[in-house]
Amino acid sequence: PAERTLVLIKPDALRRGLLGEIIGRFERKGLTIESLVVRTMDAALADAHYAEHVDKAFYPPLKTFMTGGPLAALILSGDSAIEVVRSIVGATDGRKAAAGTIRGDLSLSNRENLVHASDSPDSAKREIALWFPEL
Ligand code: CMP
Prior knowledge:
41% of the residues lie in helices and 21% in strands.
């Protein structure tokens, strides 16, 4: 069934000039871009978005990275969009992600891994409300 998911195209992607390359992969798959905004995450939004990670050792450098420059936030929709987007994005660690995925083809890092994508219907709902409260 059609569903919506939240994607962040992270600051490393914009810094590296990969925004079009990454959006193009989602478009070519057939997903629909419902909303798209470029903005810089502030500390409060980072803590809310990554609430499940704020106590982890990797969070402080993740927060510095994610708030360090503009990113793109998108709502993508389509049949099984949450699972489809996760499979296009690939495993968290770019060094281990499969070739053919965004991270597998374009990232060598476990932190600067180009994309965030909601991992479940509950997180999609929560993250869409955080990033697009007007919807
Ligand atoms: P993301 O899908 O945005 O969800 C949490 C993020 O934390 C993840 O992508 C990575 O950017 C980062 N991350 C997860 N695990 C690690 C780790 N072990 N070391 C560094 N960064 C990590």
